[in-house]
Write a structure and sequence with these properties.
This protein has about 450 residues and is an alpha+beta fold. Helix content is about 20%, strand content about 20%. The strands form four sheets. Strands 9, 10, 11, 12 and 13 form a five-stranded antiparallel beta sheet that branches. A four-stranded antiparallel beta sheet has the order 6-7-5-8. Strand 3, helix 1 and strand 4 form a beta-alpha-beta unit. The structure holds the ligand C=CC1=C(C)c2cc3[nH]c(cc4nc(cc5[nH]c(cc1n2)c(C)c5CCC(=O)O)C(CCC(=O)O)=C4C)c(C)c3C=C and fe (ii) ion. The site of fe (ii) ion has 2 residues, from loops. The ligand C=CC1=C(C)c2cc3[nH]c(cc4nc(cc5[nH]c(cc1n2)c(C)c5CCC(=O)O)C(CCC(=O)O)=C4C)c(C)c3C=C binds next to strand 9, helix 8, strand 12 and helix 9. It comes from Streptomyces marokkonensis.
């Protein structure tokens, strides 16, 4: 029996538009390798162009929860064996691979992330790089649609829907030397300046190619990571990998901005909406170089949190370091999370309520020549050092149309006068050019590699 489900569009917390596509219940596709069938999950496609009109960044958990009752439950119940009501609907959420922009930039935070850099193998050049990007794009498109990988599925994502999987590709500075495309290398990819507080491990930085994988299911994310790595074949080798996480969708009673491992609400003042993104996050459609139209530049920093020191501070002192309350992210000058900070407000002794070196003050666009970045972080925890110090912190991923007008001025200022800097350590760094999204039939980076 084929059941037609209605189109459901819902606005989450006034920020995210979600298009829930009408799904006709077809028999599940046959897995070409095993001959078995994948379960037919109803698929909910997010913002078809790659950027929904408004995104709810930092709120892992918002949509599955809001839409569960409306759309997915009926779909899953009908699809599940024996009409069992599923626990959640997050498996059916899907991000588009094709579109103006690559997914994974303005997409909601996912609960699981893998960041990887690859180096092209000795002897591999432009031709091999083009073939690799063609393979990777085809694989990403299939996996993001919830389909098994072509030519050697490893079954790890079996039973799950796409779970908001995104696979995002970028090129590092060295990629252009390796492929003979130096003349196409954007100035924006010039190496970042050194910062006095940098303690960078070069082996865990940069690289020819960068891949960001995010999903709301750990196995779906692992599956994509493993398939992408196998797909590289002899053309490229993993240079470094970092694994991160965020809160699981639905863990909080209502949609909330994410918390980091210092316990702070983090992401409040991210740019939101088309206008903000187009001004500060994406290279304009007529921008330079041509092949970067609708692309973006990503800076990644592995930032260790010195949690043993941080956790010794009283809550009050922790709040002064940031300038915001831990409980709800509101400024110390009062109000709610989104209330504007009263930057000049003083207490009875005449001291600024939000200290002069508070992180939320020093990082503001109006203190940094208007520099605006889109922060889309994952937390990480890679165990403990021998002395018991946690190796945990933030995989800081920030997006901008030009790093010299985004990350660089903000980090320069933080480097000089941020109260947070004595509780963190930047341990790895990378900068990559992330091209615009691929049109149907195209692969990511085709405009560069076939120009
Ligand atoms: C170079 C850019 C930045 C780095 C590196 C960075 C590290 C970092 N930040 C936090 C926690 C918070 N950051 C907050 C705001 C904030 N941070 C940056 C930039 C960097 N942060 C910006 C541009 C902003 C927004 C400024 C504004 O427009 O007002 C906040 C407050 C809440 C929020 O707005 O998101 C917190 C909390 C940590 C823990 C950290 C390194 C580990
Ligand atoms: Fe910050």
């Amino acid at each position: 029996m084929h059941i037609r489900r209605p189109v459901v569009t819902r606005r989450a917390a006034g920020h995210a538009d979600w298009l829930v596509r009408a799904v006709s219940e077809q028999p599940p596709p046959v897995d070409p390798h095993s001959g078995s069938r994948r379960p037919s999950l109803p698929v909910r496609v997010k913002g078809a162009s790659g950027v929904s009109r408004r995104q709810l960044l930092g709120t892992a958990g918002a949509t599955g929860m809001l839409l569960g009752a409306a759309a997915g439950v009926a779909g899953h119940a009908a699809a599940a064996p024996g009409n069992v009501t599923p626990l959640t609907t997050l498996g059916s959420d899907r991000s588009p691979f094709h579109g103006t922009y690559q997914s994974g930039i303005t997409s909601e935070l996912q609960s699981r992330g893998h960041l990887l850099a690859f180096d092209l193998a000795a002897g591999a050049g432009r031709r091999e790089a083009a073939a690799l990007m063609r393979r990777w794009s085809a694989t990403a498109a299939r996996l993001m649609a919830g389909e098994p990988a072509d030519g050697g599925d490893i079954d790890v994502a079996r039973d799950a829907g796409p779970s908001s999987l995104t696979v995002t590709f970028g090129f590092g500075h060295s990629f252009f030397d390796r492929t003979g495309l130096q003349h196409q290398r954007p100035r924006a990819l010039d190496p970042l300046p050194d910062f006095s507080s940098d303690r960078l491990d070069k082996a865990r930085g940069n690289g020819d190619l960068w891949v960001q994988i995010g999903a709301n299911d750990a196995l779906v994310a692992f599956n994509a990571m493993r398939v992408i790595q196998r797909n590289a074949g002899p053309a490229a080798r993993v240079r470094w990998q970092m694994n991160g996480f965020n809160r699981s969708p639905g863990a909080t009673a209502h949609p909330m901005t994410a918390r980091n491992l210092m316990g702070q609400i983090d992401g409040t003042r991210n740019p939101r909406g088309d206008d903000d993104f187009e001004k500060s996050v994406f290279v304009p459609a007529d921008g330079e170089p041509d092949w970067m139209a609708n692309g973006s530049y990503v800076v990644i920093r592995r930032i260790r949190m010195l949690l043993d020191d941080w956790e010794k501070l009283s809550r009050r002192d922790q709040e002064k370091v940031i300038g915001r309350r831990k409980s709800d992210g509101a400024p110390l000058t009062g109000g709610a999370e989104t209330t504007a900070i009263e930057l000049e407000k003083t207490d009875a002794e005449g001291n600024l309520v939000v200290p002069i070196n508070a992180h939320a003050r020093v990082s503001r666009p109006d203190y940094n020549q208007g520099a605006t970045i889109l922060r889309r972080m994952f937390s990480y925890h890679d165990g403990h050092d021998k002395d018991g110090t946690p190796d945990a912190g933030m995989l800081f991923v920030c997006w901008q149309a030009d790093p010299l007008r985004g990350f660089v001025p903000v980090q320069r200022h933080l480097d000089r006068g941020d109260a947070l800097s004595q509780y963190i350590r930047h341990e790895a760094s990378g900068l990559y050019a992330v091209p615009g999204g691929a049109a149907d039939g195209e692969y990511v980076g085709q405009r560069l590699l076939e120009a």
